[in-house]
Design goal:
This protein has 115 residues and is mainly α. It has 5 helices and 2 strands. It has a two-stranded antiparallel sheet. Helix 1 packs antiparallel against helix 2. The longest helix is centred in the first third of the chain and has 26 residues. The chain is elongated. The N and C termini lie far apart (46 Å).
Length: 115
């Protein structure tokens, strides 16, 4: 059995992912709420406007994620190679430098000081 490859992801990337999931959940939850409150044609018309607006928001979010459209059609994980390269670091390639007190060093800050 092949062992899964482990990756390191930046905190800001992880937090942005969670924030976007919460945002999308909120949009879907709001749509479900609005559907449950439909009383007349005006409510239906308002729902249609809202659905179109949420679709535009979802499209913009999807464009930001840079997920290839091919992945939507075929679901081939190989199509995600570009995103993995941009957002992930293979664990075996990830190195943490430590100071004398065994605290992780901020490598980016260290590189700026040396420059």
């Amino acid at each position: 059995m092949e062992q899964e490859k482990l990756y390191v992801i930046e905190e800001k990337t992880y937090e942005a992912h969670i924030d976007e999931e919460v945002y999308l959940y909120g949009l879907l939850h709001q749509l479900a709420f609005l559907v449950g409150k439909i009383k007349d044609q005006e409510d239906v018309n308002n729902l249609i406007v809202t659905v179109k607006r949420y679709g535009e928001i979802a499209d913009r979010m999807f464009d930001r994620w840079r997920i290839p459209g091919r992945y939507l059609v075929f679901g081939d994980k190989a199509d995600l190679a570009g995103i993995k390269t941009a957002e992930l670091c293979a664990l075996e390639d990830f190195h943490v430098a430590f100071d004398e007190e065994n605290e992780p060093l901020d490598i980016a800050a260290e590189e700026q000081i040396d420059a």
